[in-house]
Each structure stands twice: as C-alpha cells, then as structure tokens.
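Write out this protein's structure.
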Amino acid sequence: MGSHLWSDALHVVSFSAYLGLLLFLVDGAEQVSSLSGKQAALPYLFAAALLSAMICGLVLALRGALSATAVFHHLGIKTGVLVLLGFALSLAASHLHLPLIFNVFGCVSLGVGFAMLGIVKCLLLSTLQEYQLLRMLAVMGVLASLVKMLLLFLPTGQLNVALILLLLLSAHLPAQIAVETSGEGSSGGSAPTPPSSATSKDLTVLEMTKGMIERNWVLFAGLAISIMLGIVSWRGSITGESATILPEPGGQLGDASGALLSSLLLLGLFRRPSPDSKDSNRVLNRLQNLTPIIPLICIASMLVAWIMGVWEEGPALFGGYTATAGKLFSSIPIGFSTMTLFILLIKRLVSEVRSGLSAVFVFGLFIALVAAFFLFYTALQLFLPLRLSRIIDLLLKLLYLVIAAAYMLMFAQHRTGKSTPPVTGQIQKVARTFSLTKRETEILMLMAQGRSAPHIAETEFISLNTVKTHIKRLYTKTGVHNREELLDIVYRTEEVD
C-alpha cells in the first residue's frame, strides 16, 4: 500500500515538473535565450525543437491510429536520455562555441523527448476516473504554477541546475506502458463503450482527425489564443525587440498567478479525495453544464484585461503597456485561461479515448497541433509589424468570441429542437413497464435515434461516465446485455400494439 502511494505521488510530482517546464517555456523566451548564448542561432533552435516535437506527435498519432495496441518498453529511460542529452548538448554547443549543427541536434533531441513525455503522461492520466482525473490535474496545476514562479527568479547559473533537476523528474515513467487503443475496457473504472459507438477500428485516420477537431475545436482554439502572448514574447527574443515586447517577470508572474488561481478553484471544486457516486456526479454535471461557456468567459476576460490594462488606445487602468503593474494584472487572465482550458481539454480528450478512439492517436495529435500552432504562428509574427501584430491578436480574440458564441447558440437550438423519434409512444410504455426514471427515458429516446454515448453526453451536457451509468442501468432494468437487445424491446412493444 505504501509503495503504491509513493508511486502515485512520484507520478504527480513528475507530471507537475513537466507541466511547470511547459508553462515556463511558453513565455520564457528571455530566460531561454540567455541560456542559449547565441542570439543569432535562436530561430534555428526554436524551429528545430518545435518541428521535431510536431513530427514526433504526428508519427505516434499515426501509429496509434493504425495499430491495435501500443507497448512502450523502457520509455522512461529512452525519453530521459533524449531530453537530458538534448539539453546538455545545446548548453555545451553554446558555451564551447561548437558548430550550429550540434546545437540544432540537441534541440531536435529535446523536442522529440518532450513530445514523447507529454504523450505518455497523458496516456497514464487516461486510466483515471473522471473525478480523479480532474482532481489530479488541479493538483498538478498548483504545483506546476509554483514551479514556474520559482524558475522566474533564479539567476542563470542556478536556472541551469533547476532545469536539469526538473528534466530528471519529468522523465520518471514506468519501465513499460501497454495501451489498449480500442478504448474498451480501460482501467479508468468506467463502463465499456456501447457496441454501436464508433471506435478507431471503424474509422480512417482522416475521419478520426476531423471528428476529434470538430468536437473539440472550441477548447483547442481557446487554448491557442491563450498562449499567443507567449508567442509574441518569442518573436521579441528572436527579432531583438525585447525592450518593447517581452512580458518580463511582471507579466510572467501574472501568468503563473492566474494558472495557480485556476488550479486552486478546481481543487476546491474537487476537494473530496474519495467522493461517493452521488456527490461526484453532481459536481461533474455542474462542471459539464458550465463547460460550453467557460472558453467564452476566459477569452472575454483576457480581451477586457488587455484593453483596460495595456492597449495603447485603451484607458490603461493598470499603468499602460510599459508598466509592471499593467503587465502583471493583465496577464493574470491569460494564465487563468491557459490552465483552465488545458485542464478541460485534457478531460475532453480522455473522454475521446473512452468513447473508442486510440489513446496514442488522440494525445499524439494533441501534441502535434499545439507544437504546429506555436511554430507557425511565431513564423507569421516575424513578418508582421508589432502594431499590426497586436491588432491581429485582438481581432482573433473577437472573432473567436463571435464564432464560438454562434456555435454554442446553434448547438443549444439544436438541442432544444431535437426531432422526436417515431417510437415515442413505445418508449413511454417501456418506461412504465420497467419503471425507468425520467433521465433514463431520455437516454433511451436518444439511443432510439441512433445517438452514441459521446454524442448524448455532449448534447445533454452531462459527463460520458454518467451516460454510461444510465445505459448500464437500462440494461439491468430491462434484462438485456447490449443496445440491439434494448431497442428490440422497444420495437417488440410497437408490434404488440
């Protein structure tokens, strides 16, 4: 028992170290550029790390989509060697004035190792039940925010040592990880996916990619917008516009404070370590109901804080763009949004895995998309004047709010205007015969329309585990074992009439 708790605690610390490093790297361009020692080489190093991470994510996603299972042997050792070798080689090449190719090779190794670490850590999270997953992510968010705060105030020499220690902690993984990519029978404690739910074996790679992005684009786009300021800071380091564009420690501290606030709020929401089923479902349903509007609130708060605090044409309530207070208070909503949307997106991606998609595919594609956006938006920034870049940033936030709000409105109208299946009368008779609850009757109605468990969860704004629980109860009450047998009862009732 003690060894199990120690192992769990070590995994939490390891993921927190990894997440803390990512939070630091998002807007830590100034500190990273001071470590590289070669300002002219920074664009090549930046591109090499992100491009290799993107390719690694895509390769693993393709592997997950095409193979039934994925087994990673001695992954902790491999990724640890890759990450530490990359970091050590980059530092040595910079300080020993080795040819640029050594520095680039080190960043490629670092990018691949970081991508593999992120994917496998997410795979481990996908084995948790939904309530435990959210609580675990909240704890990790708290620790990661504190890690970033610590890194911000370390001098260069101590920063090198701290980064090496964090990389060592991040590389902690089980010696072997076996992942069932069918999505069925996961160890998360949830019910198996109903037979009619589409799994990765039923879809092409393009169909899986299209479906996953369509179902989660609001959270994907919101997270992308949240890290845009970090991208602008990297543009500042690469082009030498540091004096006017970098967020500096004030803005970085605001980011970390916002992330800490988000994590603490979620930790308070999921404060019970071992909640009973009724309490956990109530909390999860409340969060599920709020999820559609949370991205809109996050991006709107960022937009308002930026305009009120640092936008040149705005009132500059926090002292303007060059004031430390302006950067601090205007960055808090950015950190809050980044952490909140990250946690909600991981939760949704885990739901994708439990609904039948390959876990390696889902998280590989996630890593690849984030790396690709960071790389290509930074490249675009290099060709834009600073003023135009700020205008585009604001316009993208406004455009996101308009499109996302319209999407949510259309979604809500579709939900309230669902067509009634022709077997409504039969379903009501089945409900009376087997003493079904109102919610169970609604679930049966949607199943008769051919809706899958993930679709029901999304349209009814309840958790996927809750839907599966209702389906299991339907099976138990009616004495059947799968969806087809359940619907047979409905249609037999029609024939009797």
